[in-house]
Structure formats: structure tokens, C-alpha cells
Amino acid sequence: MAVEPLVLDDDFVPLTGAGRTAPSLALLARPRSAAEAAGAVLRRGPRGAVARGRGRSGGDAAQNAGGTVLDLAALDRIRGLDQAAGLVVCEAGTELGALARALLPLGLQPRAGAGPWTVGGAIASGYGTGVAALELLGADGESRTVRHGEPLFDATVGGLGLTGVVLSATLAVRPVETAYLRERTVRFRDVDALLAHWTGGGAPREPYARARVELAGRGRAFLSTAAPVPYAGLPRGHRARRAPLALPSFPGVGAGGLRPLPGPARARVLPAYGSGFGPGAAFVRYRCAVPEGREEALRGILALLAGRRSPARGARHARVERVYADGAGPLAFRVRGWCLGLDVPAGAPGLGRFLDVLDERVAAAGGRVCLAEDARLRPALLPVMYPRLAAFRGLRAALDPGSVFRSDLSRRLGL
Predict the structure, then answer these.
(1) What is the mean pLDDT of the chain?
(2) How far apart are CA 329 and CA 368, in angstroms?
(3) For residue 178, which phi and psi values (nearest 5 degrees)?
(4) What is the pLDDT of residues 3-57, one digit of tens each?
(5) Which of 149, 231, 250, 413 has its CA at 20 to 30 Å from residue 347's CA atom?
(6) CA distance 132 to 134
(7) Alpha-carbon distance 118 to 169, whole Å?
(8) Count of alpha carbons within 13 Å of 392, Cβ hemisphere only?
(9) Helical (H) or strand (E) element with 304
(10) 104-147: per-residue pLDDT in tens?
(11) DSSP assignment letter at 215
């Protein structure tokens, strides 16, 4: 395949995902308003444009070699709050954790979750929970309001920035009585015991649940669950009783199993979603989904990860979550069943071949890899994992016939 020559100048900067494994150079635009974002799209060169949040995803979806990348960090304003309707409107560069901290004193929490991701980045990566509508900038420089349930909305949630630039979003909020969750952790001897518990009568009812499975050692599993604490559930004498919605100062689990809500104390509800390999270390983030009823396939994948010669053992543990509903869009990653993720040092010998084998196992089980975290999937497996791929391509062709919105990922996978 011929390589396109690129003539770059000092305005081009190197960009990469969180894993730092596939850097490329792009012209970085930093719009401070919707009008400036539209201008950057209209002035893009022949290599097109794509939006970028904070570069938290592990793959190359927010990169555009030789083209334009719109850094939306400056579009971080909260435009309005309707407490009666339970809705907040904020710009795409708003960090969900910052939004959670702003809403907490009002006794509210965004349903979309809270963390170090921007609103636009979360939507493009497939997190559409609690999103009622969004303002989408098209290839023609015009913006439109897209509402939940519309085909374009479904294609944009998880669409990796290829349907347009999300400028703002209307998010649902929910009431909270305190700034705390109560966390519980249960240990299991192995994956079989964990899955038996999780699929049986002892299935956790709490809204937050994640398991860690050891990939070395005894292969034990640890299931952590957490639920919001009402005011009456705070321990007697706890300082939070005087100011239940004040920002907690401690990052971890405190007395009585209390943990801050996601966002307010800049801490995640469950074990951190980071590589843990030290600052600057390159890693590959592998995230896949396996449908409900294919638990044997999930066990087989975990056994492969924990094998004596597995290059994934450097990850130390894998994360497992249960998913209760399919995603709506043609590129939606969510599958009713199970989500498995891990971060592996990029330099692990034989890692590329090993992950190719994992891809085959996942595809054979009717599952898929998360494109927002991917930088290496073989294009031949894409239509197998995403059977509605043709519908996405058709919508894109009608909406953006000139393929204005492009990325390293879209070129690599032929999106």
C-alpha cells in the first residue's frame, strides 16, 4: 500500500492515546467557542478533522495524522441547570468529574457518571447513559440538535467522532443525599466461584460493581460493589452528618466502608482505571465484551490471560464488569453480558500475536473489542464483531460524503 507523503511544519504536534503506543502528528486547533470550532472544520485540509477530549482513551480514535485535531478542552462551560426537569446543559469539553463537583452542593449527580473524561469524549466512546440530547457540528460547519432515540444520536454515541463534533450535551441528573458511597468487597477462590455468585441468587444489586481477577498467583477474584449512602446511613458521629454534601477530602475507603462518590474527591468508585506502570510507561489497553450465555468463552479467555507463558500476566489482574443492556448504536460496544479489560506493558514479548488470538476468541463468542481503546485490531474482524457496520458506513456516507471527519482509527479500520 502506498504511503501518502506528508509535508509538516512547526504547527503540527505529536498526539497519542493514553497508552502512548501509536503517536502521529496533527495540526492542533483549540477552539474557544462553537463558531471557532466550525471555522476549524471548514478550514481543515485534505486529511480531514476529528475532535479530541483529554486523550484518556487507549487507542488512536482522537488522532489524525497530517490532518486537523480539535482540542475541545476550552469548551468547558456549564450552560444551564433545570432542577425541576433534572437536566443540565454543558459544553463538550466539560470534565465529568468537575461537573459532579459543581452539582454536589445542590444534592445532584450526573447520571452519565463522573471521572476524568470530557462529556464529548465519553459520548464518542460510547457512554450514552443519561444523555438526553446533544449539539452536533456537521461537516458543513452547521450545528444541529440531535435527540435521544434518533438514528444520528445512536450513531454518534460510540461513533468515535466520525459523525461530527459534539459541541454540548443535555445530561440527566439524579438526587443524592450525601457525598458518599458504601463499598463492600467479597473474595472468591477463582473465576468459577465469582461467576456462580454473580449469575445466581447472590447477584449484586448495587449500581456500581466490578471484579478484579488475578492473572498470576492463585487466580483469586475480588468483587467490589458500592451504593450511594443516604443521610440516615451515615455512621453516628461521622463528620459528614454536619455537612453531608461537602466535598470529601479522603481519596480511598474510610470508616464504615465509606468512599466518596465518583468525581467529588477525584477518585473512582472502584479500583482505578489506570495502567499502574508508572508515569510515561507505554501500555496496551485491551477491552472486550462477551455476550450473556457465553460464560465458558469468558472463562477460556481469562484462562488464556493467566497462562504461564501469557504476555498479559504483566497486567497482574483483569477487570470484569456485568452489562445489563445492549448499546443502541451500530458501533456500540456494550453487549448484554460481560466486559473484560486489562492494561498490558507495550513491550511484553509476543503481545501482538497473543492479542490477535484473543480477538479471534472474542469474535467466535459473538463478542467485540472496544474501538475507543483499540490501536491494533485487524480490519477483517471488524464486520464480524460489529454486524451493523454497513449501516454506520451508510449513515456516514449520507451525512458526510466528503469524509471530512477522519482519524487514524478510521483509516486503519476502513470506517
Answers:
(1) 90
(2) 14
(3) -140, 175
(4) 344 444 457 899 998 888 889 999 999 999 999 999 999 999 999 999 999 988 8
(5) 413
(6) 7
(7) 11
(8) 25
(9) helix 295-305
(10) 999 999 998 888 899 999 999 999 889 999 999 999 999 999 99
(11) S
For residue 409, the one-letter residue type is L
C-alpha span between 141 and 39 (Å, rounded): 7
68-71 and 49-52 strand pairing: parallel
Whether 113 contacts 268, CB under 8 Å = no
Residue given cell 469474535 in the structure block: 363
Residue 273: predicted pLDDT: 43
CA distances in angstroms from 300 to 238, 316, 356, 364, 385, listed in the order given: 46, 17, 15, 12, 18
Distance in angstroms (rounded) separating the CA atoms of residues 129 and 323: 13
User: How far, in Å, CA of 373 to CA of 17, rounded?
Assistant: 8
Q: What DSSP letter does each residue of 344-375 carry, written as one string?
A: EETT-TTHHHHHHHHHHHHHHTT-EE-GGG-S
Cell numbers 460489529 label which residue? 386
| Rg of the chain over all Cα atoms, to the nearest angstrom | 21
- pLDDT (tens digit, 9 = 90+) per residue, 349-371? 999 999 999 999 999 999 999 99
Cα 203 versus chain centre, distance: 24
Element (H, E) at 410: helix 408-413
CB atoms within 10 A of CB 270: 22
Q: At what angle do helices 191-199 and 295-305 cross, to 10 degrees?
A: 150
Nearest 5°: the CA angle 55, 70, 119 is 55
- Helices and strands in the chain, H and E counts: 10, 18
Q: Please list the residues that pair with 137 across neighbouring strands.
A: 143, 165
